[in-house]
Write a structure and sequence with these properties.
0% strand, flat
Length: 150
């Protein structure tokens, strides 16, 4: 029983099928594939972008299905509107302000980090100069010691 897999034959079949269908590499890319962006995963910057663009909560969803059920659901919605709308609007205000605050904190941290990096680069250059000067002095002192010992 031969369990070997002929990769060359499989690849030849794939290439033949591609040629028969007339497919080319420029026909589709991963950028063309639609996907729903979620808050999970990704970088903190992507999460902040998601929060700032999705802070608004819809108070109601469209009803579908049995017309009798839809009628009663709409009637209940109108009766409860005075209770639901203020809560949803308050939540939307909170979400919007939270998104603004998170973005501001992120930008402030970015600016602060840039300032710290600049400061550390300056300190690093100064320390490198001092180290070079100390190494020269050390070399001079060693040469003086070796001359006196000789």
């Amino acid at each position: 029983m031969d369990n070997s897999i002929n990769i060359e034959q499989i690849m030849a079949d794939i290439r033949r099928e591609i040629k028969e269908k007339g497919l080319t590499s420029d026909m589709l890319s991963f950028d063309d594939i639609p996907y729903k962006k979620t808050a999970q995963g990704g970088s903190p910057a992507e999460a902040i972008d998601y929060v700032t663009s999705h802070y608004y909560v819809q108070p109601y969803q469209e009803f579908k299905g049995n017309p009798v059920k839809v009628f009663f659901k709409k009637a209940l919605r109108k009766i409860m509107r005075f209770y639901v709308d203020p809560i949803v609007m308050e939540q939307n205000d909170f979400n919007a302000n939270t998104a603004i605050a998170v973005k501001a904190i992120s930008e402030d941290k970015s600016k602060d980090m840039c300032n710290r990096v600049e400061t550390l680069e300056i300190v690093n250059k100064e320390l490198a100069k001092r180290l070079e000067k100390l190494e020269r002095e050390n070399a001079e002192l060693r040469s003086m010691i070796t001359k006196e010992q000789a």
